[in-house]
Amino acid sequence: MKHETVELLISDLRIGIDEKDESAALKAAARKRLQKAGIHTAPLTCRLYKRSIDARRRGGEGIVFVCQAMAELPALNLPSAQRLKDEKITPVDREPMVITRGKTPLRHAPVVVGMGPAGLFAALLLAEQGCSPILLERGDPVAERAARVEAFLRGGDLDPESNVQFGAGGAGTFSDGKLVTRIHDPLCRYVLERFREFGAPEEILWRAKPHIGTDLLREVVSNMADKITALGGTIRYRCRLDDIRCEAGEVVAVTNCGDIRTSALILAPGHSARDT
Ligand SMILES: Cc1cc2nc3c(=O)[nH]c(=O)nc-3n(C[C@H](O)[C@H](O)[C@H](O)COP(=O)(O)OP(=O)(O)OC[C@H]3O[C@@H](n4cnc5c(N)ncnc54)[C@H](O)[C@@H]3O)c2cc1C
Asked: For a pocket test of ligand 1, which of 111, 115, 161, 195 has the largest count of ligand atoms closer than 8 A to its C-beta?
C-alpha cells in the first residue's frame, strides 16, 4: 500500500444542533460507526467534510445536523474492501488527479483560450507544471470588466468583448457563485480546495450548498490570475482567438493581437462565444 494511513468518508452522522462541542460529538459518532463496521481503532484525525440540516424531526429525533466526516486511520486497521460492508463508509482516493508528464519538451508554449473556470484551471495546472502557458481572454481583467458591466447597467453601451458573459472569470463571475453540482466526481473537492486556497471561505469545504458570493468570487479569480503569472504564465486580455491555422505540423492561433505559434491549443471559450 502506498500510504501508511487511509482516509475514510463516513456519511449520515447525525448530531443534535444544540451540541456544545460539535467536533467532539462528530468524533464520537464517527468512532461509533467505525466500531459497528468492525473497525476498532480510534481515527488519527476526524474532520467535518459536509454538513446539512434535517428539520423533519423524525422519530422524535429533533432537528439535527447530518454530517459527513473524513477520518484518517492507520492502513493496517482497515479491513479489505470485501470485508468493509457498511455502505456509509467509503475509502477515499487521495490522488484524484494523476498528471502524466510528457517526455518531449514543448517547442512552443501551450495556449489556453478563455479565462472562465475551465480556462483558468487549465492555465493554472499548466503553470504549476512549469509549462508557462499563454492565456488569451477577449475581455478585460476583473476590475475593468466590473466597471464596464456597471456602466452598461446604468444605461451605457454594450461592449461586445467585455460584459456579463465575457471577461476574466467567465460567464458566472457576476452570479452568486453557487458551487453546487449533481456530479459526484472526486475532482469537485479539488476545485473547492483550490478556491479556498485562493481566498474563498473555509466553509465552502463543508457546507452542503456552498457559495462564494459575487464580491469574493472576483477576488478569487484575480488571485488565480496572479498565481498563473507568478509561475511564468502570461495573460493577454482583449486578445480574441479568431481562427486556427495548421502549418508544418504546428498550430497557429490567429488572434486580433497577432499570430501565436503553439504546441498545444486548449479551447475553453464557454457556450456564449458563438462567433468562435
Ligand atoms: C448569469 C449566470 C449565472 C451563473 N451562476 C452560476 C452559479 O451560481 N454556479 C455555477 O456553478 N454556475 C453558474 N453559471 C454557469 C457557469 O458560469 C458556467 O458553467 C461556467 O462559466 C462555464 O465555464 P467555462 O470556463 O466553460 O466558460 P465561460 O465561463 O463562458 O468562460 C469562457 C471565457 O472565454 C472567453 N472567450 C470566449 N471566446 C473567446 C475567444 N474567441 N478568444 C478569447 N477568449 C474568449 C470569454 O470572454 C469567457 O471569459 C452561471 C452562468 C450565468 C450566465
From this structure: 115
